[in-house]
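Appendix B. Raw example, untouched.
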Amino acid sequence: MDGICTLANDHVLDQTIALINSIEAIMGPEFPVCIFPYDDCMEQLAAAISDRPQVQIFADQKAIDYWDEQARRVWDTSPKAKQRWAELTSDPYYRFGTHRRFGAFSGPFERFIYMDADTLLLSDVTPIFERLETYDWVVYDFQHTDLNHVYDHRSPALRQVFSQQRLDQEIFCSGFYAAKRGTFNQGQLDQMIDQLRSGESDILYAMAPDQTVLNYWVMRSNLKICNLALELPPEEVTGCCVTSPHFVVKDNLAYDQGTRLVYLHYIGLSSGLFRQVCAGENIMFPYRNLFLHYRYWHAPHTAVSLTGPVQLHDAPPTMTQRFLRKIQLTR
């Protein structure tokens, strides 16, 4: 069985509902979705999907614990990461819940597409599933143009582990990928732990923990990777991120120079921003109306009315805001 997975909790409820609605709108009301819990804060989300039989919250605690342990094993090989995290948090691992997406390798779907909660599905993904017949891993992004958020580009070990050609072609964003259940077995994971302990952990990028681990696992296992951004004809390739201002929205879909996007990733926008807008604050961000359409697509009568003057999400702080921040800093 094929399905789409995501990672969520109550803090990203609005984005998650928008994603689920977009999947239903594009793929139909019976297309299965599995939500992997970021943490135990899932009560509101569980209530919100209670009338969606096609949506489940992954509840196999044994599998969750297994992948938690695999993530800990990886990071326990990296004193450098632990030292960096100690500057930011008292937790032994940074943003540990992001690793919960690994549960899809033991999840309910034989083939799955993982989508971050802050994405919208805008095209039928059947062709992506079909690519899994000849590839082990399918992505569609431009992360290969920016190594810095995947590996520690300053590490002298990086190009000893992976050639520059592989780094230019195989790295990917962990916000959207297609794979199969059972992609990694215990033997592979154990072997990669040995390689990390031998010094390869130096190449991991500690500030994007799930992304660097997934890239390392996929590349070190020599999986057959397809990046549609590199393999499609140039005239068919589209962007995917809200940082691109040129997409044209028509009939609640987005187009890049006439070609429909597969998905739109609201990358870089905080979950708090979405909560504020869904509470009625008139804050403008890229492709806001498209998000709001899917957020309330299933229950349009619950849509909020935005009030007050338009605020830009990235506007500089007002004089009053600067004053209040100064007071807080001096207390």
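End of appendix B.
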